[in-house]
Design a protein that fits this description.
The chain is α+β, with helices and mostly antiparallel strands. The protein is built from 2 helices and 4 strands, in the order E-E-H-E-E-H.
Length: 70
C-alpha cells in the first residue's frame, strides 16, 4: 500500500480526508489540490472538502491515479 485515505463525513456537503503516503506520492500536493484548506507534510496531510462524500471520493481516486501515472 503506497497511499491511504480516510474520509470522515461531517455533514451532507462536507467531509474531512486524512492522507498518508509511504514513498512516492506527495500527499501535501494532493491535499492542496483537493481543497484550499489542504496541507500538511509530504507523507501525511489532510483537508476539509466541501462536497458530498461520494463525489469527493471519486475526485480523490482520479487525482491519485494521476499522481501514480506521473
Amino acid at each position: 500500500v503506497e497511499v491511504a485515505a480516510l474520509c470522515i463525513e461531517q455533514s451532507e456537503q462536507t467531509f474531512k480526508v486524512s492522507l498518508r503516503s509511504r514513498t512516492v506520492v506527495d500527499v501535501t500536493a494532493l491535499a492542496h489540490s483537493i481543497s484550499q484548506s489542504g496541507g500538511g507534510h509530504i507523507r501525511a496531510a489532510g483537508a476539509t472538502v466541501h462536497l458530498p462524500i461520494h463525489t469527493g471520493i471519486e475526485m480523490i481516486k482520479e487525482k491519485l491515479l494521476a499522481a501514480f501515472s506521473q
